[in-house]
Specification:
Elements lengths: L4 H6 L2 H4 L28 H16 L22 H9 L7 E2 L7 H5 L7 H24 L6 H24 L19 H15 L16 H13 L1 H5 L4 H12 L34 E5 L11 H8 L19 E2 L2 H4 L4 E4 L6 E4 L6 E2 L19 E2 L24 E5 H13 L7 H16 L13 H12 L5 H7 L33 H6 L10
Antiparallel strand pairs: 1-3, 2-8, 4-5, 6-7
Helix pairs in contact: 3-6, 3-7, 4-6, 6-7, 7-8, 8-9, 9-11, 9-14, 11-14, 14-15, 14-16
Subcellular location: Cell outer membrane
Main location: membrane
Keywords: Cell outer membrane, Membrane, Signal
Length: 541
């Protein structure tokens, strides 16, 4: 069994009933304000560490009983409401990277880009992030009672990072939201995207030296490199979010993260010539991949059970003629596939001479299942064989063994939220966008390091003359697909809503079509608007 910091504590957290959540961002009634109590939780460092685990667990789990029962958020299926599952729904299903055949209310509207202000998924994500902010505020407030403790100071810095990360998601998805930093019963005011951006930046700059040094924390907890990496992401999006180019800062903090103890995983445990797939296996906390993970959500098939997370990614991507046992699970959910727009970004090494369909890829990141699958999608709903399936995430370890859940329901694979490869790509993009302090040759070397891993040799290497923004947006797709990044990337490149880049069923049209620019943001939940009259809805909704 995987026994790291977070997983050790997951199984205690639901029984501990940690701390009060008197208010989320909008006094949302779907979150029970009396689910937690501070009593006896902050008695000492050990208990405070257990409370800290809840902050991490809130990104992985969904309630107080495991995969289902006593959910933290109501109004949506509990497994569906898990953070990274909703991040996938909002940042991948809305793009060229993924489609899903299920007809859950509001779900088909995501790929069709026709969601409204009452959409279950946009609403639940807002509430999930609001909950994380509330939990962090409560922890920070209560941990102040434990004075003269460097260890608790580090805990508080981690809580501040997690709160900043929640706000990073909020301004990415919703823009203007209330900034709440203390437990309060007051109805909050709405803050601008610029104000939230400034808060995140200030927090991360303040805590960088309060967090432990690179690699000093046990696996599962963030250190100061996470603050640098999140600053890299924040500054890369600054021109879109606040109208101010911060690419020089993106280079600075990308370089700090790159020069840390983290490293690109090149460990090929199974000897197949590519170390890329090791990043998404059941033992990615020990097979070398963990050295690339700057911030990850940890899962264990026995002690952290959820129908979201990588359990969702592995099950939902299996169907048709695929063998679920080969992925370490008991069955596929026949949901997720990809579009030809993603497939066509990869280099084919061999093609079938009869029909021209690719059967092998030169780029090892092209983890597609094609047997019985159609490249082009004619029907999304209930037709798993339309669109290639993706085998990127699996519940099998590097030696071919399935995860620890003997029933094959729940998955062990950890999910990277920020890994060093992304920071390499951030650096290269910031250089191409004329940030100072970096150089094109270094950027090219970083990209080639990723491509050498992907190709297993130097055949995929590029020259500095090949490296431009068109290359970068496609390389980000090849390296980071299904990791919750794509919508944000497409918006930054001006491709999400416009007609400059189309993919199958974009805007609900089979060949793809442009949609209104207001779709670059999701709506604030309609019920929150009714509750909090201080809020102004995003334009278009």
């Amino acid at each position: 069994m995987k026994m790291n910091f977070i997983n050790k504590l997951f199984f205690i957290v639901p029984a501990m009933v940690l701390f009060s959540c008197h208010n989320d961002l909008d006094v949302d009634p779907t979150i029970d304000p009396d689910s937690f109590t501070e009593e006896n939780v902050f008695a000492n460092e050990t208990e405070a560490k257990s409370a800290l685990a809840k902050l991490y667990a809130s990104l992985a789990l969904t309630g107080q009983e495991g995969p289902a029962g006593q959910p933290d958020i109501s109004g949506i299926d509990e497994g569906t409401s898990q953070y990274s599952r909703m991040l996938f729904s909002l940042n991948e299903l809305t793009t060229d990277n993924a489609v899903v055949g299920w007809g859950d209310p509001g779900l088909p509207d995501l790929h069709a880009m026709s969601w409204g202000a009452s959409n279950d998924f946009t609403t639940a994500m807002y509430n999930r992030l609001a909950q994380e902010v509330s939990f962090c505020n409560s922890f920070i407030d209560n941990a102040q009672s434990l004075t003269n403790s460097d260890e608790v100071d580090a805990f508080v810095a981690e809580a501040r990072f997690l709160r900043a990360f929640a706000y990073y998601n909020l301004i990415d998805l919703y823009a203007d939201v209330p900034l709440v930093t203390q437990v309060s019963t007051n109805v909050p005011e709405q803050n601008s995207r610029e104000e939230i951006f400034g808060f995140i930046e200030t927090e991360l700059l303040e805590i960088q030296d309060l967090l432990k040094e690179s690699g000093a924390n046990e696996y599962g907890r963030v250190d100061r490199v996470a603050a640098w990496a999140l600053l890299s992401k924040l500054y890369l999006n600054a021109e879109v979010w606040i109208g101010e180019a911060r690419y020089t800062d993106a280079i600075t903090y990308s370089q700090l993260a790159i020069n840390s103890t983290y490293s690109i995983n090149v460990n090929d445990e199974n000897g197949d010539g590519s170390a890329y797939d090791e990043l998404f296996k059941a033992d990615n906390d020990t097979n070398g991949a963990q050295n690339e993970f700057i911030f990850a959500i940890n899962f264990d098939g026995n002690s952290s059970r959820t129908y979201g997370g990588t359990t969702f990614l592995v099950h939902a991507s299996r169907g048709g003629s695929m063998d679920p046992a080969a992925a370490g699970i008991n069955g596929g959910w026949e949901g997720l596939r990809t579009t030809s727009a993603l497939v066509n970004k990869f280099n084919y090494a061999v093609t079938n001479s009869e029909d021209g369909d690719p059967i092998e890829w030169a780029d090892g990141r092209a983890m597609f299942y094609t047997d019985g699958q159609n490249l082009e999608i004619n029907t999304i709903a209930n037709t798993f064989t339309d669109g290639y399936a993706i085998t990127k995430f699996t519940n099998v370890d590097s030696e071919g063994n399935p995860g620890v859940d003997e029933g094959g329901d729940f998955v062990d694979t950890d999910l990277p939220l920020i890994r060093l490869a992304e920071v390499y790509l951030n650096y290269a993009e910031a250089v191409l966008r004329n940030g100072s302090g970096g150089d094109l040759q270094t950027a090219t070397a970083y990209i080639n390091e990723l491509r050498q891993r992907a190709f297993g040799n130097n055949n995929g290497n590029i020259t500095s003359g090949d490296l431009d923004l068109d290359f970068i947006i496609d390389e980000r797709a090849r390296e980071l697909y299904w990791e919750g990044q794509r919508r944000t990337d497409l918006i930054r490149f001006g491709d999400f809503t416009t007609g400059s880049y189309l993919w199958p069923f974009k805007g609900g049209a089979q060949g793809g079509t442009a949609v209104s620019e207001f779709r670059n943001l999701f709506p604030l939940p309609s019920n929150n608007i009714l509750i909090n009259t201080n809020l102004t809805q995003n334009p278009g909704y």
